[in-house]
Amino acid sequence: xxxxxxVSAPLTPEQxxxxxxxxxxxxxxxxxxxxxxxxxMLAAHPExxxxxxxxxxxxxxxxxxxxxxxxxxxxxVDDLGKLSDVVxxxxxxxxxxxxxxxxxxxxxxxxxAAVAAVLGDAVTPAVAEAWTAxxxxxxxxxxxxxxxxxxxxxxxxxxxxxxxxxxxxxKVAESAEITSFYxxxxxxxxPLPDFQPGQYVSLHLHxxxxxxxxxxxxxxxxxxxxxxxxxxxxxxxxKQAGVPGLISNRLHRDFNEGDVVxxxxxxGTFFVDAAKVGAQAPITLxxxxxxxxxxxxxxxxxxxxxxxxxxxxxxxxxxxxxxAFAAHVRGVCETHPEVKATVFKNRVADAEVQGVDYHFxxxxxxxxxxxxxxxxxxxxxxxxYICGPPVFMKEVQQWLVKEGVCDSRIHMEVFGVGDGE
Length: 421
Fold this sequence. Notes:
37% helix; 421 residues; alpha/beta; 3 domains; oxidoreductase
């Protein structure tokens, strides 16, 4: 899978100027362009349907996300350092889906064609040439990053490339909506590659009615070194996107202990980076709903390492019935005084005790969380990890920035739209 990166000629100043000048048009017509791109590319290359999320195509979420990414690239084509985090996140996603170097020209051909079709006469030969060069330069970056990751997998004694069969060793209900699947390698070959707490695996299933495979990303919800991987999946009824989760419902309904699924090696850029976050710097884990899953991995890794780092757990749930890992988190807090929890619930039962089962009712309001031990707002080294619905994450980010937290200390788990179904 690893391939040497082709090095395209650098963009000329004139090409950079042209690409930047087209950014406003791309912002205005981006969704129309990307919708046409996906439709035409998948019609011409149906084999790529195994990679792209059909649900996100149906809801329009994936075209919107790509339109935003294309606009961002056009805006910063002369300063790609500002997009380094985004590029790394996308590269990890591509590797988790086994994207190949020879697929980039296909994407480029159809993307440039869609730009030309939508913008019409505005796409002069010079504009087309500039965008072709810009896409080639970006493709080189991704092919190089992803090739290095594939090569690292091949060098690792425990790693692998491609989709690997795993047996469901245990299936455990964590709440009325979330179920954990304990996955062991079907070939029995151990050890498994270690992963950073907070990372994810891709899992795919064949969908007969679509005639293709469909992949999804699921956060690993426990620590490395256990001889298995654990994912904790929410059964998605489709209340937000209007389309029930294609994969999650099948996993809950049709897959049981002893059944086999296929996953790729762990990937992702959402984790506590020891190189950037001091060993004793406090962290706050802020989640809502199924966003709890990478946070449990981070929390369990903290406990397993014997760390004394101050940790604040801030979680929002609709009710006790749908709140996963509640007893586990309470137990950690009871035995680890450096870990503090604040739980918000929209609905509470009469038997629930405030201060034990929950702390506040209603939607999460960070202004109610203890400033010193819950948010560490007066500590310039504190870092914040956020996972949940996109609107929730954006609101939390904006609140933290307003309170004086710099963006470099705010980390969000941003899956591709439609992931985790």
